[in-house]
Amino acid sequence: MTFKPFLRPNKVLEALARGDTPLGMQMYTHHPDLIEIVGYAGFDYVMLDMEHNRTNPETMVTLIRAAEVSGLTPLVRVGANDRFLIRSAVESGAQGIVVPHVKTAEEARAALEASHYPPEGTCGICPAVRASGYSQDNWEEYMAASNRQIMFIPLLEDIEAIDNAEEIISVLKPGRDGVGVGGADIANALLKEPGEKVQWAHPYLKEAQQKVKAICEEKNIPIMGMAFPTSDKAGVEAAKAGGTRIIIFYPDSHIWFEACRNIIKDVRG
Question: What are 47-64's pLDDT values in tens digits?
């Protein structure tokens, strides 16, 4: 029997279709053991980050394999809205492409097309890639499955993106795609003077979230957002109250830092 890796389910999409809330973890470290731990702990997906750490395409493939082995759906946040980076993730087996700093509908459309094969998109074609099973066998079946399973999630992380939110979200496909709001980047973009303290709860951030929530509810596009302000049930409920339907937790590196710091606090006072 021919193994068809592209037929594995997308747990994020399955959970949303059931009306459940998929739970995921941002992964900043590069070690497959940590990916497996997240999977065996019961999470639905991981977002492998290539923007804020030094993960390269070769390492990304290893992390995707670890995600698959432990039952996780692998999403990849590419470092930029770049066709090569997007195609590398698609061909490696990513089931979701998260693109930072999408500011316009034109940028969203370019990233979406790069994430999908013809006739839906313009992703470059090569049958001998990992996602297709390194074979031309069942190539048409692979392309159809890839287009159906791969989510495109643009991150609105700039004031310009919030201004263009309706046009950007209109590019997305209900039942497959999602959108995220990058509050940290927006909060920093609101700084006006050198040395000014960042307002992490700036009133504009609530306005931006409410605007995106209203548009997404109208167009049936789920929001991916962080469990906040705490990585626990209370943080999840707060995020859901704000319109988030796909929960993602703080990066593994931050969770490990907090665990270590709490040990020191407990022992040394």
Answer: 999 999 989 999 999 999
User: Is the domain covering 5-268 a CATH 3.20.20.60 domain?
Assistant: yes
φ, ψ (nearest 5 deg) of residue 205: -65, -40
By three-state DSSP, how is residue 60 classified? Answer: helix
Q: Is 31 a catalytic residue?
A: no
Taking 60 as the threshold, does the pLDDT of residue 43 lie above it? yes
Task: Write out the two tokens for 179.
Answer: 């959108």
Q: How far is CA 6 from CA 11, 88, 204, in A?
A: 13, 15, 41
Do the Cβ atoms of 115 and 124 come closer than 8 Å? Answer: no
Q: Which of 52, 101, 202, 254 is catalytic?
A: 52
For residues 149-176, give the mean pLDDT.
97
Q: 10 Å Cβ neighbour count for 264?
A: 9
What percent of the chain has a predicted confidence (pLDDT) above 70? 99
Burial label for 219, CB within 10 Å (0-12, 13-18, 19+), is middle
Residues 6+ apart with CB under 8 A from 224: 98, 153, 178, 179, 180, 244, 245, 246, 247, 248
Give the separation between CA 198 and CA 131, rounded to whole angstroms.
42
Average pLDDT, the chain: 95
The single residue listed with the structure tokens 């209109």 is 170
Which pLDDT score, from 0 to 100, does residue 69 have? 96
Domain locations in the chain as residue ranges = 5-268
The β-bridge partners of 225 are: 247
Report CA torsion sign: 80, 85, 87, 88.
negative
Joined tokens for residue 36: 């497996």
Considering only residues 46 and 201, tell me which one the structure prediction assigns the higher pLDDT.
46
Rounded Cα distance, 90 and 30, in Å: 19
